[in-house]
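hey can u check if this looks right to u? its 480 residues, i copy pasted from the old doc so theres a chance i mangled smth
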Amino acid sequence: MGEIDAYASRVVAACTVGDVGALNEVATWMAGLAAEDLVRLDQRARRRWMSPQQRDGIARDWGADRLAAHPRSALAMSMVADGYVRERAVAVLTRQPGTHASRALALRTCDHILPIRVSACAAILGRTDPAHLDAITPVLLVLNRFARDWRGAVLDEYHASAGQRHGNRSMWALLRANEDRLVRRFAAGRSIEDGTLGPDGAAASYPGEKDVVVQRVLGRLLLRDGEPSVVAPLLTRGISASDRAGALARFDADVLARDDVRRLLFDSSVLVRLWACRRWAELGEDPVAACRDVTGSASLPARVRARAHLGLREAGCPPGPDEIRALIESDESPLRAMGLRLLVGQAVADDVPGLLRQVVDGSRGEARLATGVLAAQLELWRTADVEALWGEPDPETRRRAWVLERARGGWDAVVADLRACGHDDPALHAAAYSVVAALPAYTVPTAAHRERISELLPGSRLPESKRRAIAVWAGVESGH
């Protein structure tokens, strides 16, 4: 965004002084911009402030003859704030061949000045060659999403015109191969709506599509109308979890490949794993035995072995406490994370020191999971146990200390919020600023709570009204 703002300022500065070279450099840079960035550049260039004298000078200096003499400069000049100059630039661009002029014209189809908008729309309706189609469609799609106040029927009219020339089937096939994923999503949806893309075409496109949204659109068509023997192996190997789960739910076990079902027992999606477990049992196999085989195979990736442990729990045979603690002590991060995930609700008091070490020394994911284990079993620890975390140099660790103390609820949460409000860390102060919302409605603070609140309230940096509300609720002095 900083680079786009810099070039937007450069357009204004160059057109003010008549620097053709600088405008040509901007036009060259524009050629490499994605459609979304091109729309942002146009918006920022037109919103740059100019004095009335500058506007008059630009309108006077950049007449139709000068723009025609410098057609590359017209690409950048079509984005300036002065409507007369934009109108002249559009007239020059309509006579220019090439996709760069087409993209600049597409930008002006949402111009707030009607003559400019009409001229630009008329110009692009005549540019429906495959190269122009690939260049104009991304810009129109972004405008259709961003410029809602000025969008019209030009998107549909443009593709209707291109469809009359090339045929809808060929046009949508061309757009489904576009590099821009937004264009591929749009083309896939439209081609299915008008019936030009059937199950055979979707099956051919599905394996090579890398965008999960497009795959999901194609997958829905295949699930609805496809041949099961063709569709099942495609969807069970797709990148969309909804497609994999849909295939397992839609097709009987005898249609699915045994190897695919076994692989999906350890999928990243819980819904896929549950359906795979059901289909695996229908094939006469034992899901628990399959998970046990994987957990004991050191040659498989740690992430797959971790999911196998989770699969044991989902199959009704959860790992035992010793096995869970062995996972937490593992040298491999996915196994440690899975051990912490399985420990929720099963920890004992002896686990607390190790969990606190994970909060301090573990990776961000492991620390978050360890925090969740402690927060789920508040009876295992006291606020004094996490006191040392408040003094850690890492701000993320201090935030976890606040999360843990706040999870205790009641007046412990109020004390935690007040302590965070008075902290030097601005993020921690901001996170705890809603302390008044945490005031307990039906419990009375203990003497220890009152003493702690009296100490923290003066340095909390809260507004006077909030400090008074807390003091009245707790029965202490507000400290002002």
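The mean pLDDT is 87.
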